[in-house]
Amino acid sequence: MTASLDQITWPVTTSRLSLRRLTENDLETTWSYRKLPEVTEWITSGPQDFETYRTQFLESGKINRDIAVQISAPDGQAQIIGTVMIYIKDAWGQREVAEQTVAVEAELGWSFDPQFAGRGYATEAVSKVIELCFEELGLRRVVAGCFAANEPSVRLMERVGLRREAFEKANSLHRSGQWMDSYSYALLKDEFSDRP
Questions:
Q1: Could you read off the pLDDT of 32-68 as tens digits, one per residue?
Q2: Domain boundaries in the chain?
Q3: Span between the terminal Cα atoms of the chain, in Å
Q4: C-alpha angle 75/11/160, rounded to 5°?
């Protein structure tokens, strides 16, 4: 059976958070922080207006692969504080064994509302997503990457136990027009299982 986010019973909870599938109703909430310069600087797509964001959101498959991260607000309502992408994909393999590479790894990505930074929410959410990838989805590997200058993401990847696999010099074009360095991180299921 091919791994799918449909295999997971949502919502999934941690000690402080609730994770659920993203819906079209989340457009305005996610736009409210994704449009901020400090968030847009590092995310893949940084549209300048809500209508462009809406179009990209609906066409990009975000609803199929993004997880809304929520906390309870003082009034008891759940409040979205970020999203985590789980993009299930094929690994590379030689032709004779290519069928064994189908949907065996996930690429992770994230964006969080800066007003909730510094409280460990991103670490808690991404750690839970990694657990879901290995224990619920049965994947063999998770990967993540970022511009090397994106220090908060670098620190997050290291806090959740991802291992730096590559440093690439001036390989990624930033929307500023500058070619920037990048890092690639990963974790194997065996490494995850062996952790204390």
A1: 999 999 999 999 988 899 999 999 888 877 777 888 9
A2: 5-193
A3: 30
A4: 95
Residue count (the chain): 196
Q: What is the pTM of this model?
A: 0.94
| 54: three-class secondary structure by DSSP | helix
Q: Could you tell me the maximum CA-CA distance found in the chain, to the nearest angstrom?
A: 57
Q: What pLDDT, on a 0 to 100 scale, did the predictor assign at position 112?
A: 96
Q: Return the DSSP state at 101.
A: G
Dist CA 164 CA 166 (whole Å): 6
The three-state (H, E, C) secondary structure of 148-163, written as one string? CCCHHHHHHHHHCCCE
* CATH code that applies to domain 5-193: 3.40.630.30
Strands (DSSP E) contained in the chain are 12-13, 18-21, 66-72, 78-89, 105-112, 141-147, 163-173, 179-188
Q: Among 135, 153, 136, which residue's Cα sits nearest to residue 144?
A: 153
Give the position of tokens 């027009």.
Answer: 177
